[in-house]
């Protein structure tokens, strides 16, 4: 994104990962959890690749509202989730909300008034290298 000329406000919720990201991209990375996002109409886009999948299901609506509020009108939001039917932990003990398409569409729809919402399923893999189905959610404020 930086190489493409975008003005990136890079963030991570973990100080150690933020430090690694800073070293990799050569610019500051703020420590910020989505639950603390309080910006209003500040961003043209929010890219949340494989991070909101760790938010407990009960907390996801609030975070989606915060992201919606932080976007400028017409702003784009992309997030990815590992599919499933119920929240739980993987074999490494990491929490995932594991949504299915209907559940995720419902949560997005009740959290905010998106002008456009598209959810697509794709095959891929995860940290463990095992085949994983993913949901890619793309929304426009």
Q: Please give the share of residues in helix.
A: 10-25%
Q: C-alpha Rg, in Å?
A: 15 Å
The chain-level mean pLDDT equals 96
Beta-strand segment tally:
8
* Structural category: alpha/beta
Oligomer: single chain
N-to-C series of helices and strands: EHEEHEEEHEE
Largest sheet: 4 strands, mixed
| Strand order, largest beta sheet | 3-4-8-7
Query: What is the CA-CA span between the terminal residues?
Result: 20 Å
SSE diagram, text form:
Layout (H helix, E strand, L loop, with lengths): L10 E2 L2 H11 L4 E2 L11 E6 L11 H11 E12 L5 E2 L5 E2 L4 H11 L4 E10 L5 E10 L1
Helix pairs in contact: 2-3
Please describe what this structure looks like.
The chain is an alpha/beta fold and 141 residues long. 23% of the residues lie in helices and 33% in strands. The strands form three sheets. Strands 3-4-8-7 form a four-stranded mixed β-sheet. The model has no long low-confidence stretch (mean pLDDT 96).
How is this structure best summarized?
The protein has 141 residues and is an alpha/beta fold. The protein has 3 helices and 8 strands; from the N terminus they run βαββαβββαββ.
What attributes does this structure have?
141 residues; alpha/beta; 4-stranded mixed sheet; two-stranded parallel ribbon; 8 strands; 33% strand
